[in-house]
Amino acid sequence: MIAEATTTTWFYACNVQDVPLNGGVCVKYNDVQIALFHFSRRNEWYATQNECPHRMQMALSRGMIGTLGEEPKVACPFHKKTFSLKTGECLNSDECAIKIYPVKIEDGKVFIGVE
């Protein structure tokens, strides 16, 4: 079996100062909603799908971020399902996971990578 090569397209999402410290915003790319988080306590940036797979609500960008041990996570504001910001894995059950996206910062601008 030959693995298909994927190409990452980086799109400009916003300026660094547009995202609250230790919080998130929703960014739209074509028809996709992406939750973008600035985990300023750790000096890290993360992006995930905005839709919580538990009840299919566009809510993760409004979730609370924190850690479980050393694992950065986001909790859905409605259902408290928690997801790893690194892997997308659900941390309080194994029933669902979320898509994650790479993030890079250049000259005060935030870029998100999509396939």
In short:
The protein is mainly β.
The helix-and-strand class reads: mainly beta
Compressed to H and E, one letter per element, the order equals: EEEEEEEEEEEE
Major sheet: arrangement of strands:
2-3-4-10
* Overall CATH architecture: 3-layer Sandwich
Mean pLDDT: 92
Inertia-based shape: globular
Rg is 14 Å
Counted up, domains total 1
What's the CATH topology name?
Rieske Iron-sulfur Protein
- Low-pLDDT sequence parts: none
Question: Which band does the percent of strand residues land in?
Answer: over 45%
Strands, count: 12
Q: How would you name the oligomeric state of the polypeptide chains in this document?
A: single chain
Q: What's the total helix number?
A: 0
Mind describing the biggest β-sheet?
A: 4 strands, antiparallel
Termini Cα gap: 21 Å
Structure description:
This protein is mainly beta. It has a single domain (9-114), classed as Rieske [2Fe-2S] iron-sulphur domain (Rieske Iron-sulfur Protein, 3-layer Sandwich). Helices cover 0% and strands 50% of the residues. A hairpin with a 2-residue loop joins strand 2 and strand 3 (32-39).
Task: Lay out the secondary structure.
Blueprint: E1 9-15, E2 23-29, E3 32-39, E4 44-49, E5 51-52, E6 57-58, E7 64-68, E8 71-75, E9 82-84, E10 100-101, E11 103-106, E12 109-114
Antiparallel strand pairs: 1-12, 2-3, 3-4, 4-10, 5-6, 7-8, 8-9, 11-12
